[in-house]
Amino acid sequence: MVRIKICGITRVEDALAAARAGADAIGLVFYPASPRAVSPTVARQIIRALPPFVTSVGLFVDASATEVHQVLAEAPLDVLQFHGNESAEFCNQFGRPYLKALRVKPGDDLNALAAQWPDASGILLDSYKDGVPGGTGEIFDWSLIPLERNWPLVLAGGLTADNVADAIARSAPWAVDVSGGVEQAKGIKNAAKINSFVQEVKRV
């Protein structure tokens, strides 16, 4: 079964809607430039409201180690997700499993790139858009994803209830990650869209 992460959660009620719908994880953004950014205090409130077995994931973009530690001191995240130019050495220092995000461009050797983070729990593939580290709302060419790979794929980038079944059929990911595709406004989720997305994933 393909796992599901609902990213860009900013409110307790949206986290609970994701959990009730059957999501496996929720994502909290600690990138100040994002319209979906949350403070560590809000993140802690959201995490404390989660029911059992829903994983909390914290997203960072080229944050300093001090900034990551400051967030962890207040918000007990289960998993970290790095969307910038972080090295494997940097990602490994926090005592948490981590995902490394790669923004896919034509010509990328994704197996070779993934190998640079051998300890990552998964490699998240997102759409490349110059100057935008993630959350573009745009899909990329799924045919660029190698079907022969030895790393767990988390597929992101413009996923919606309308295209996620096709995306899964083409790329066979371990998990899918959605943010804008289940929103009614940036950072505000829509429970009906979350339900539809989860149902489409589970239908595959």
UniProtKB/TrEMBL annotation:
Gene3D superfamilies: Aldolase class I
Pathway it works in: Amino-acid biosynthesis; L-tryptophan biosynthesis; L-tryptophan from chorismate: step 3/5
GO biological process, one term: L-tryptophan biosynthetic process
Pfam families reported in the protein's UniProt record: PRAI
E.C. number: 5.3.1.24
Superkingdom field: Bacteria
Keyword tags: Amino-acid biosynthesis, Aromatic amino acid biosynthesis, Isomerase, Tryptophan biosynthesis
Coiled-coil residue windows: none
Domain annotation N-(5'phosphoribosyl) anthranilate isomerase (PRAI): ranges: 4-199
Catalytic activity: N-(5-phospho-beta-D-ribosyl)anthranilate = 1-(2-carboxyphenylamino)-1-deoxy-D-ribulose 5-phosphate
GO molecular function, one term: phosphoribosylanthranilate isomerase activity
InterPro entries the record matches: Aldolase_TIM, PRAI_dom, RibuloseP-bd_barrel, TrpF_fam
Record family assignment: Belongs to the TrpF family.
Descriptive protein name: N-(5'-phosphoribosyl)anthranilate isomerase
Species classification: Bacteria, Pseudomonadati, Pseudomonadota, Gammaproteobacteria, Pseudomonadales
